[in-house]
Write a structure and sequence with these properties.
alpha/beta; 7 helices; 6-stranded parallel sheet; globular; 34% helix
Length: 236
């Protein structure tokens, strides 16, 4: 089995980086092959632009998704994109390792999604959700938050964590066909003493130990929609 970790943290001594290191150790010990895309260390370019294509199907007007398809088919995509797409194709499981910034991904990781989940390979037309290009692969978030646990949930100040993460879980991962596993979230990490940090690491190890028993998140199925993406009328 093959694991790709897409890691986005600027500090090599951070808690999230320690979680990434534990992930590598866990899966290598289990006999998996592991690759890590450490985006800050790589100096990964997160900006989707015309520079991503050495030749264009339409040189006069940039429709990024269409040029992704053309670039993949003709071998004219930027080499850094091709290298990451090949890692995604190789992986059976992708773990995204990052701190939550402003209810979302760090910009460098969002840019990785923009540039690497390419049209024509990962999605396109009706090749989405349970028919997506990455169907058969799994994904999971391993992330941290500054907030405390009581700040998330029904009626809590920040609302439900599931709602906060939906643009990532469904809009990015589920959309391209990935089976999305429940995330592991480390709360309030910057403010915790060492014993509590160690307890979180133990909880993360337990989460990894039971990965195959975790119930995937529910995503839309195109079997429930017609050709125009209107919901099918279900019989009473």
């Amino acid at each position: 089995m093959n694991l790709l970790i897409v890691h986005a943290h600027h500090e090599p001594q951070s808690f999230v980086t320690s979680m990434k290191d534990l992930t590598v150790q866990h899966f290598e010990h289990a006999g998996w092959s592991v690759q890590v895309s450490d985006l800050y260390a790589m100096g990964f370019n997160p900006v989707a632009s015309a520079d991503d294509f050495s030749a264009r199907k339409n040189p006069d007007y940039l429709t990024y998704a269409l040029e992704q398809r053309h670039g993949w088919q003709t071998g004219t995509l930027a080499p850094d994109i091709v290298a990451e797409v090949e890692k995604v194709q190789w992986a059976d499981l992708i773990i995204f390792s990052f701190p939550v910034y402003w209810y979302s991904l760090p910009a460098i990781l969002k840019g990785w999604v923009d540039r690497v989940f390419i049209s024509g390979v990962c999605y396109g037309g009706t090749r989405i959700y349970d028919r997506g290009g990455l169907k058969g692969k799994r994904a999971m978030l391993a992330t941290s938050l500054g907030g405390q646990t009581h700040m998330f949930g029904p009626g809590a100040v920040h609302g439900e964590l599931e709602t906060l993460l939906k643009p990532i879980h469904q809009g990015m991962l589920g959309y391209v066909g990935l089976t999305v596993l429940p995330p592991f979230v480390a709360y309030h990490v910057p403010y915790l003493p060492q014993p509590e940090r160690e307890a979180i690491m133990q909880a993360y190890q337990a989460h990894l130990n039971q990965l195959d028993q975790l119930e995937p998140l529910v995503m839309p199925s195109l079997n429930d929609y017609d050709a125009t993406m209107h919901p099918l009328v279900k019989p009473d």
